[in-house]
Design a protein that fits this description.
6-stranded mixed beta sheet, MoaB/Mog-like_dom_sf, 41% helix, Competence-induced_CinA, alpha/beta, 16 helices
Amino acid sequence: MAVALLSIGTELTRGEIINTNEAWLAAELTAAGFTVSESSTVDDDVDRIVAAVRQLASAHRLVIATGGLGPTTDDLTAQAAARATGADLVRDESTLLAIRRRVEARGKVMNAGHEKQAEVPAGSEILPNSSGTAPGFGIHLGESTVFFLPGVPREMKSMFTEQVLPRVRPAAPNNTFQVRLRTYGLPEATLGELLKGVEEAHPGITLGYRVHYPEVDVKVHARAATQSMAHELALKATADVRERLGTAVYGEGGDAFAEMVGRSVRARGWRLAVSESCTGGLISHLLTSYPASDYLVGAAVTYANSAKTRLLGVAEDTLRGHGAVSAEVAAEMAQGVRRLCEVDVAISVTGIAGPTGGTATKPVGLCYWAVSHPGGLVVRDRVFSGDREEVQLGAAYAVLDLLRRIAGNLPER
């Protein structure tokens, strides 16, 4: 079944926020066996929302809309949904009670905005919100079912998983299966070259790519007579893809890069320390976005040369002779923080993130990183392209990847 997505919010049409809801819903629906054939975005204008809902519902049996169910005056989705179906906007007393309980449990007082969230089109099906106050709801428009969900990603995701997916899953063709491989270290063009011939070797397989710097996801999508056959086909093709890409594949599905690096360190029984200069704590943030207290001992952000010397023991002669951005300083930073924290392994990075500070011999984007471990010391360097954020993220991933490879006894790059 083909599905349409509708994103509602002026902040989206103005580019003030990135529409992550659309990408997440599309991925979840695809994994469930649906085909997302159309996506639209509209601002907080009742007439335009009504027109968009009617247009999408006329061409699709299933539409999922997000956004505009909040307590403020610019949240107009419920009103537009009522107008689209010709129904009255009514206050649902059970929803109002649920909102009141949630608000008062937080020690707050109900206001008009909270009460507004209990207003839904008459005859609609209420979708309880386990993560917030605004309920979702479903309506029928011609032969189409339209579900309206909050725009807050956390609330939208839980409501889709708990309320919408169980209702619509029976309508899925159940003849597809998808595996998402997570890769780092190879650009999309190189991945495409390495995977030439996979689709021809496995009829029914379609490969897709999603770039989110500095990673690329490879989606192995199978379609067959039944879901079990599609599952078997996807696994065979995935094995082929993995063999071709080798250690560039670090995980699958919801695996996160830093989380997998942590698993590699944990599996070796190592304790880790981090020293950062140009990345300013980004590496530590990536690692501690997941449980890390069992292997991560400490981290130091040492921007100034004096901090490198006093905290990490980087020699002043090394700084004078080679500069803060050098292989020698990266090495001494890693060795110093390893010694300071008394750990098995330590990583470091130093560089020029830009947009200023570069020279002819040391351009913006130049970074050095090092890993000091029981087997020795490894130092690497590269000039990263892009803006400051991209240079920092590129350097953070590079040192984490080197750590992953050393901890996992994988070939180093």
